[in-house]
């Protein structure tokens, strides 16, 4: 096939991109979006600060725009994200009472997952709950006020609101098998699966430096998949976009049957949150870069 999405579909996978609602009116952007991708992730529009700016008052306009367009185009939607320490309104961050925060978290998950019910392929239910460099939990307000149990509570709440969407745990720096953070997330997933906590998938953000994925990435994906979850590459970008590093990432996913798809974190370099590193598959003018050809051939 001659597009990323169509080529990925030949092995039953998707190839997606992060989408920003504010860019949809740009013709170059939307032309590439519709031509190349069969999945989308709203880049910021589903985050807590965008959807529940004040308690109990929900705004889904920008996310609806992305989701409506994706559904019309036949693209899958990854929902990103329900519980995260970042882009979190200060009214949530300042809650100190466990009963209040538990209710607030459950209400947020229920309202958002219910709003998008029937349109979401997979939800990043909890994002980035582990600290870097150690196996410890990140000291977020959720961790500090609710303790370890908040993650499974979030997954159970999401399942009750949307029984069909796949429910993912998503994080970065969990691509290298021997890292303490990878091991800690692995132990959590193993524990959840053994106790029947509703977790269906693990998202590997994959924000890589110029050297690309670690040599162990393929085995990391395979080891997680062996626990009985799907794995997905959810936010791929690679500094300077070396063709080989991109191809290696695609090959790692393709080598694991339960690696169901890859999402790049933006379309053109100029759309990237790391735009200074030119980490994407299209240049600022929308031309295909060398990495594009390498990905298409590896898919
Ligand atoms: C980034 C967006 O790309 C930026 O536009 C925003 O300013 C900050 O967040 N991990 C995630 C994503 O899970 O939501 C982040 O996206 C990048 C890191």
UniProtKB/TrEMBL annotation:
Residues in GH10 domain copies: 8-298
Residue ranges of coiled coil: none
Compartment(s) where it occurs, according to its Swiss-Prot or TrEMBL record: Secreted
Active-site positions on this chain: 235 (nucleophile)
Tree of life domain: Bacteria
Family: Belongs to the glycosyl hydrolase 10 (cellulase F) family.
Name this protein carries in UniProt: Beta-xylanase
Organism listed in the record: Streptomyces nogalater
Residues of the full protein shown: 38 to 336 of 665
